[in-house]
Write a structure and sequence with these properties.
single chain, alpha+beta, four-stranded antiparallel β-sheet
Length: 253
């Protein structure tokens, strides 16, 4: 069997000698590189539409960022941040003076979220400009408004795929911030459920409430029924909300 012939390596085209031809060649090559990076079906390279959508994303992301960071207790070099929230997380059923009481207590919880998306550019657009960072105290995060303003100076051959990649990244940032805000807003949903279920107006606890000596609790309902009812319902969970409502119906029957 005759030996296989080795395929000759394709030689890369030489850069044009003429200055304007060279500029056009580099722009075309850069455009192809960006298109290879943005490997997603139905990606829109329309500059006008992407500029419009990116400006909207930047505005919304900035608003969510400001709301979230007002509750940040610590953040480290833009990699992660720890957030604090205050509210009512559980309803407890207890026996007190031969009565069954439904109570809820002030709760303070903290959670750390990954925020690298806000401090690191994705591959493909991370080697065009040196990004500016936001002003202190959030100087660990990229200033995407300034980055976008620098980007629009690119030639259209490169700008189209560049903006497509940037828009995808900003959409991911919006999802990241949305998860943080959803967690921070959870106490609002909890307090609405409590007020609707027990017909009792409650005040959202704050950090000042935890500086006091004793942990406060609210009696939501007292029943004359006595027994050995000792239960805890995590009211952020829909399943526990349903169980609590059914238990209240049982106590009322």
């Amino acid at each position: 069997m005759p030996p296989r012939k080795k395929r000759a390596k394709k030689s890369l085209p030489e850069d044009p000698d003429q200055p304007l031809d060279y500029v056009a060649h580099i722009r075309e090559r850069s455009g192809r590189q960006f298109e290879n990076v943005v490997r997603r079906k139905n990606v829109n390279y329309d500059v006008e539409q992407n500029v419009r959508e990116i400006r909207a994303l930047l505005k919304i992301n900035a608003e969510i960022f400001d709301r979230c960071m007002s509750s940040a207790s610590s953040y480290s070099d833009g990699k992660s941040a720890r957030f604090a929230r205050y509210g009512f997380d559980v309803v407890k059923v207890r026996q007190q003076n031969e009565k069954t009481q439904f109570i809820t207590e002030h709760e303070h919880s903290e959670q750390t979220f990954d925020m690298k998306l806000l401090s690191e550019l994705p591959a493909g657009i991370d080697n065009i400009f040196v990004p500016k960072n936001r002003d202190a105290p959030f100087d660990g995060f990229v200033d995407y408004d300034a980055f976008f303003q620098d980007a629009v100076m690119l030639h259209d051959d490169v700008l189209g795929p560049f903006l497509a990649k940037l828009k995808i990244h900003l959409e991911s940032i919006q999802v990241c911030l949305g998860k943080i805000e959803t967690w921070l807003k959870e106490p609002n949903s909890n307090i609405e459920f409590l007020e609707t279920t027990f017909g009792k107006k409650l005040k959202m606890p704050t950090a000042d409430d935890f500086n006091k000596e004793c942990k406060k609790f609210h009696i939501l309902k007292s029943c004359n029924e006595s027994g050995t009812f000792v239960k805890t319902f995590e009211i952020a969970k829909k399943n526990d909300q349903t169980k609590l409502e059914k238990f209240l119906e049982f106590m009322a029957s």
